[in-house]
Write a structure and sequence with these properties.
Elements: E1 2-3, H1 16-25, H2 37-74, E2 76-78, E3 89-96, E4 105-106, E5 109-110, H3 111-125, E6 131-135, H4 149-156, H5 168-185, E7 189-198, E8 213-223, E9 231-238, E10 248-257, E11 263-272, E12 275-283, E13 287-296, E14 301-309, E15 319-326, E16 330-336, H6 343-348, E17 354-360, E18 374-380, H7 385-396, E19 400-405, H8 411-420, E20 425-430, E21 436-439, E22 465-469, E23 475-481, E24 486-491, E25 497-500, H9 516-527, E26 536-538, E27 543-546, E28 557-559, E29 564-565, E30 568-572, E31 575-579, H10 582-588, E32 592-598, E33 600-609, H11 621-629, E34 632-635, E35 638-640, E36 655-656, H12 658-678
Parallel strand pairs: 3-6, 3-7, 7-8, 8-34, 8-35, 16-17, 16-18, 18-19, 19-25, 26-33
Antiparallel strand pairs: 1-2, 2-36, 4-5, 9-10, 10-13, 11-12, 11-14, 14-15, 20-22, 21-23, 23-24, 24-25, 27-31, 28-29, 28-32, 30-31, 32-33
Helix pairs in contact: 2-12, 3-4, 7-8
Length: about 675
């Protein structure tokens, strides 16, 4: 047996008080007047022995009553286990999974609500000396402390759902590290009992890193939803990477059914660019389907959209937000070299959508790239280091680069740039098999350029090309020649960097006279629109580019009607990036569309929650028990499927004696009173 408050045992010294009272109080004498001394002696002998027994019994009752009251305050108990750590306060470590999947409906409300009420019962039933470690997926400094029962009940009411997802092994290891440190540095702890209240989704239940524990007790409690299914908006994207005024937009929407049952006429509400539409789709069980919404852009500007699905089970993933920019112009800088072709600027002059600026290679300065969307290198033979660095910085800053070499390239200077751009190196001039063999129609570059795919189309040819050397470069062929070499390609690592391996000089052929040439040049211009992500996922490391970046010292912040948040940012070349990853963004931001503000509105950011938990797949009892048993000795599984009020969690508790001691103490006091009142001497 041990005591919670052994310091109260010093009060046992108060047992001397009734003894002192007994010695002095019961030795007082009274005068009695009798006519016969013989009678007095006889009565006195009989009474004295009886009175002495009565007083000793009264003294014993008082001593026992006082001793029981002292023991009650010292709170004796028998530990739940007999290991050597039971010299301190017992610990009840309660983990409540408050991820979004716990907002599923149970018998008595949301699973998270049932988990809170289960934890409330456990805390109320715990002994007064028990220390409570209450934590959720937040696992922050506020939760890293031991609480009394009253404090734990107060913190319990503050728990709300969060998009944070934690693995079970991370949570239990976090608890163990904290309690070990607390034991070592602050106070002696006794038996530890870990209560895990979760739905045990498979994506958040990992046991591989769980630290072994052969002494303490673990109670996984699985809360089961009424409906194991979910309908949600998975993602959205445009068929074409380009959005322009008067152009048809194909908005692809992917909807998922995470349940086993087929769903018919599921309502989908789409709001985008001042257009509202309702779409009804049929969803087979455990499948994703894609539906397309067509509409035409009527005006330029930054647009936002929202897609909603009518699902009454899990609500957090029913909305999907996105935003994009419809530009009314593209700014192009044509850098002309010795063999520059006038056909380039003539093609762009066909549409007012393109604003062309011309500069000769000898007049180029770095500031000419400010505000440009496309740098078109037209007929340069030499690329000095300074120009190569400028082109690299421009490309890495989100600008589009089109490289069309001259007729006499200095391949050593060109190849230095091409290597940095992850493009193949140029070699000598090659003139055999230079007829175009095929176009890679499946690449987004050609999407929508032709009415239909034509394999037998009469393709033009070029007289000469520069031989290319792969050098393990990362690029994608767009136009291939019969000799197997590429004529036109783009980098797969650096966005929107294009290379034409021939020259537009007439000595290399008449490619500029073919209809394919203006189609390629115009498509490069279209794809050079500075784009921002349609949406970003909260909880994942994501960067949002700011192209029209000023030198203002005012921090850029994102804002909607409820939230004003200043993300961290970094400058890279000609633009800045807003970092929207990490737990701070996840805890402070919600899904939705936010204005990007730097003195004035400069853009939109759409944020969505991660769909990782939308799959609603849960572990079985055997999977949970088998996952624990390799690491934990004392484990007891429970399932809550009929509501927490119908389930009593039977956890191992220390047997408490303070109530018994108090009752016995009161009984001794009652016996003392009865003896005094009823025992007549």
């Amino acid at each position: 047996m041990k005591f919670v408050y052994p310091e109260f045992l010093w009060a046992l010294s108060a047992l001397s008080i009734p003894i002192i009272i007994h010695l002095f109080n019961f030795r007082r004498y009274k005068k009695l007047y009798f006519s016969s001394l013989t009678f007095i002696k006889q009565v006195e002998q009989q009474t004295r022995s009886t009175e002495k027994i009565k007083n000793l019994i009264i003294l014993l009752m008082r001593l026992l009553a006082l001793a029981m009251i002292v023991l009650a305050f010292a709170q004796p108990y028998i530990p739940a286990s007999n290991n050597n750590e039971n010299a301190g306060h017992p610990v009840l470590a309660i983990y409540i999974d408050n991820s979004f999947s716990m907002t599923a409906k149970g018998t008595e409300g949301e699973l998270l609500s049932e988990a809170r009420e289960m934890a409330r019962k456990l805390i109320n039933d715990a002994s007064l000396e028990t220390r409570i470690l209450l934590n959720t997926n937040n696992m922050n400094g506020i939760e890293q402390r031991l609480l009394t029962k009253i404090q734990a009940l107060e913190e319990l009411d503050k728990i709300t759902s969060t998009p944070l997802i934690r693995q079970i092994d991370d949570v239990l290891n976090w608890q163990k590290r904290f309690l070990d440190q607390e034991q070592l540095q602050k106070e002696k702890l006794g038996t530890r009992q870990h209560i895990i209240l979760s739905d045990f989704q498979d994506i958040s239940t990992n046991f591989s890193k769980l630290q072994k524990d052969q002494e303490h007790f673990y109670y996984p409690v699985q809360l089961t939803p009424q409906i194991k299914g979910n309908i949600y908006v998975d993602s959205a994207w445009f068929s074409s990477p380009i959005q322009r005024i008067g152009q048809n937009n194909e908005l692809n929407i992917r909807i998922a059914n995470a349940g086993n049952e087929n769903q018919t006429n599921v309502e989908l509400h789409v709001e985008v660019s001042n257009i509202k539409r309702d779409v009804f789709v049929d969803l087979p069980g455990n499948q994703k389907i894609t539906t397309v919404v067509n509409y035409t852009e009527q005006e330029s500007g930054i647009k936002s959209g929202k897609i909603s699905v009518n699902d009454k089970h899990l609500l957090w993933d029913d909305d999907y937000y996105f935003s994009y920019n419809v530009k009314d112009k593209v700014s192009i800088l044509v850098l002309n070299g010795k063999n520059a072709s006038a056909a380039v600027s003539q093609v762009y002059a066909l549409e007012k959508y393109y604003v062309v600026n011309l500069v000769n290679e000898g007049s180029f300065t770095n500031d000419r790239l400010n505000g440009m969307d496309l740098l078109f290198v037209n007929g340069l033979n030499d690329i000095p280091t300074s120009l190569s660095n400028s082109i690299m910085t421009f490309a890495q800053s989100g600008g589009t680069v089109a490289l069309f070499p001259g007729d006499n390239c200095k391949t050593d200077t060109w190849n230095g740039l091409l290597k940095n751009l992850k493009l193949p190196s140029l070699g000598g001039i090659y003139s055999s098999g230079t007829k175009i063999d095929k176009l890679v129609y499946d690449d987004p570059f050609f999407q929508g350029m032709f009415e239909k795919k034509k394999e037998a189309i009469n393709l033009p040819s070029v007289a000469k090309v520069y031989k290319t050397y792969d050098n393990s470069s990362a690029y994608l062929d767009l136009i291939k020649l019969q000799n197997g070499m590429p004529l036109f390609l783009r980098s797969s690592n650096v966005n929107n960097v294009f290379l034409f391996t021939s020259s537009l000089d007439p000595s290399f052929g008449s490619f500029t006279s073919d209809a394919l040439f203006p189609s390629i040049v115009l498509r490069i211009g279209e794809m050079s629109q500075r784009k921002t992500p349609y949406s970003l996922t909260l909880g994942q490391d994501a960067y949002y580019p700011i192209y029209n970046n000023s030198n203002s010292e005012t921090p850029i912040h994102i804002k909607n009607t409820e939230i004003d948040f200043i993300p961290s940012s970094k400058k890279n070349g000609f633009l800045s990036y807003l970092f929207l990853g990490g737990n701070e963004a996840l805890e402070r931001l919600k899904n939705g569309t936010y204005d990007v503000i730097n003195k004035e509105k400069i853009g939109l950011i759409s944020l969505n929650y991660d769909r990782e938990e939308s799959s609603v797949k849960y572990l079985t009892r055997s999977e949970i028990e088998n996952g624990f048993k390799d690491y934990i000795k004392n484990i007891s599984y429970s399932e809550i499927k009929d509501g927490q009020s119908h389930k009593k969690l039977d956890i191992e508790k220390p047997f408490e004696y303070w109530k018994i001691a108090l009752i016995i103490g009161v009984l001794f006091l009652v016996l003392e009173i009865l003896i005094i009142k009823l025992w007549k001497s």
